[in-house]
Structures are given as structure tokens and as C-alpha cells.
Specification:
291 residues, Arc Repressor Mutant, subunit A, 2 domains, seven-stranded antiparallel β-sheet, 21% strand
Length: 291
């Protein structure tokens, strides 16, 4: 019998940047956390990325994925040539695709991957970055500018190419590709509820009632399904919301912590530093202030 799979409803891909570039030792950035995802296809040279402080060699003939909200450092040993793609992938439920289906971050490239990148650049020749420094290109105007498609066919083909490229990191048979939250699992609507109500207080009792479980049973089952306690998961999503607001708006810290569901500045600062390793103000400055 063939296994059945329910696709995530309302998945939307948005292209931000795509191009081919040559880098040198000036490509050296520490602890960047972007609200978008990145894919690299290395063609020549050597470099390193450090997603979540895990050292990963960039070498020719491989594709690399850095999911949104993953803290990563970048460095080029001497010379590096690569295709790159910046994009967002959103679900109508407000969930993060990487929460549902954890992806691998490195896969052997194929000739088709190269053709897909070439076609993507042919379709979208004006989407490359003019500079490689995030302090210059990660600006609010850049993030919100969008791609002007020539036609609906242009949009569909561009989206299809990006879907094909990202699918390489969710390939069947990968050891860590087991869905974290099965599509029919009762916790999917719990995660959606958390995302949609992240700006207010959310109690474990409220979540347990929605899952039709006792508080203790819910906490154990939620951690088994997600790898995190409900409180840790909620705090992580609150911090992701704060990160996005810090780099895409000029809201004050007080406004940001309120919109992220925190009611205490000291607690917000403590959790933010636990998750990101830095303070909100330092994070905003390191991510170049306002996009």
C-alpha cells in the first residue's frame, strides 16, 4: 500500500534574491539571523558556514540550506564561487515549514540543480544583490520590495524552480527527514493556535483543553512530538517574532516585547539572550538596525 501524505495547505514561496557571485576573504560575517531562507550551490573554491555553531564546509558540487531564523556565521577561506537564493516559504496556518518537517542542510548537487539555478537567473536577472554585506542589503525597503513578474507563467515557473530546489533538502530516505509533526497529529492545530496568538498570554491549561488532554499528559505528549516543552516552544516563537520586528521595523523595544507576548522587559531580555546569545539592542545593531 502506498503511504498517504497531506501537503501543507496554503504554501507560498516568495523570491527575494538570486544570482551567481565570486567571493573572497571579505565574505566574513558572524551570527546573522535572517527572517528568510538561503540556498547556496557551490561551484568553485571553499568556505564555511556555522548554522547553530555547527561548522560545515562549503565545497563545490553541493547544495546548502540555511533555514529562516537559524543563527549562522559565514567565512571564505580564500576564493568562493556560488549560486545563491534568498526566499521565504510561508504557510497560511502561520506555521514554520521547518517546524513540521526538519530539513537536512547539505546535499550533493545534480546537473538538474545547476540548470534550475541557471533558469531562475534567466527568468529573474535583476534580483541579485549589488553588495554582499548584510549591513547594506538587509534593509526594510529591500525586504518589502518584492519581485515584479512579467506574467503569471513567469511567477509559476519561478515558484516551481524554488520548490524543486528546496525539495532536495526534504528528500525521502534522509535519516532526519521524519516529520516532526505529522499532518494528522492533533498538535498541528495547537502549533497554529500558538502562532496566531503569540502576542497574548497562552497558558498550558488552555492548550491542554484544546488538545483534550490533562495538563501533565499534554506537556509530555507535546515534548515527545516536538522535542520541546510547550513553554520552551512558545518562548522560541515569541523570540522569532521579536527578531523579525527588530530587523524589519523601527518599533521601540517596549512595543516589540508587547507584540511578541511578553509582559516583562527583564523576562524578555533574559529569554532573548538565552535563545540568540545576545541582547535585543545588540541584535538589532548587529543585524544592521532596520531592514
Amino acid at each position: 500500500m502506498t503511504a498517504q501524505f497531506n501537503t501543507p495547505l496554503g504554501t507560498q514561496i516568495t523570491l527575494l534574491n538570486a544570482d551567481k557571485c565570486t567571493l573572497d576573504t571579505s565574505w566574513h560575517y558572524c551570527d546573522l539571523t535572517s527572517p528568510f531562507s538561503r540556498i547556496y550551490l557551490i561551484t568553485e573554491g571553499e568556505g564555511y558556514i556555522f548554522p547553530d555553531n555547527q561548522k560545515t564546509l562549503l565545497e563545490p558540487g553541493y547544495l546548502y540550506l540555511i533555514p529562516s531564523f537559524v543563527t549562522c556565521s559565514y567565512t571564505c577561506s580564500n576564493f568562493l564561487e556560488q549560486y545563491y537564493l534568498h526566499f521565504t516559504i510561508d504557510l497560511s496556518e502561520g506555521l514554520n515549514i521547518y517546524d513540521l518537517f526538519p530539513a537536512i542542510n547539505r546535499v550533493k548537487a545534480t546537473e538538474n540543480d545547476m540548470r534550475l539555478f541557471e533558469r531562475l537567473l534567466e527568468l529573474n536577472p535583476e534580483t541579485g544583490l549589488r553588495v554582499s554585506d548584510p549591513a547594506l542589503y538587509q534593509k526594510k525597503a529591500w525586504l518589502n520590495r518584492g519581485v515584479k513578474y512579467q506574467s503569471i507563467a513567469h511567477y509559476f515557473e519561478t515558484s516551481g524552480i524554488i520548490y524543486q530546489l528546496i525539495s532536495r533538502f526534504f528528500s525521502p530516505g534522509q535519516s532526519n527527514n521524519k516529520p516532526l509533526i505529522e499532518p494528522h497529529n492533533r498538535f498541528r492545530h495547537i502549533l497554529t493556535f500558538i502562532r496566531q496568538n503569540i502576542d497574548r498570554e497562552i497558558s498550558i491549561k488552555e492548550l491542554a483543553l484544546k488538545a483534550c488532554l490533562s495538563g501533565d499528559h499534554f506537556t509530555r505528549a507535546f515534548k515527545k512530538a516536538t522535542g520541546q516543552s510547550p513553554l520552551d516552544y512558545i518562548n522560541l516563537k515569541r523570540i522569532e517574532k521579536a527578531q523579525l520586528l527588530l530587523v524589519t521595523t523601527d518599533l521601540s523595544l517596549k512595543e516589540i516585547l508587547e507584540k511578541s507576548g511578553f509582559n516583562s522587559a527583564s523576562y524578555f531580555n533574559r529569554i532573548f539572550k538565552t535563545v540568540t546569545g545576545t541582547t535585543p539592542l545588540a541584535y538589532r545593531k548587529n543585524q544592521s538596525g532596520i531592514f
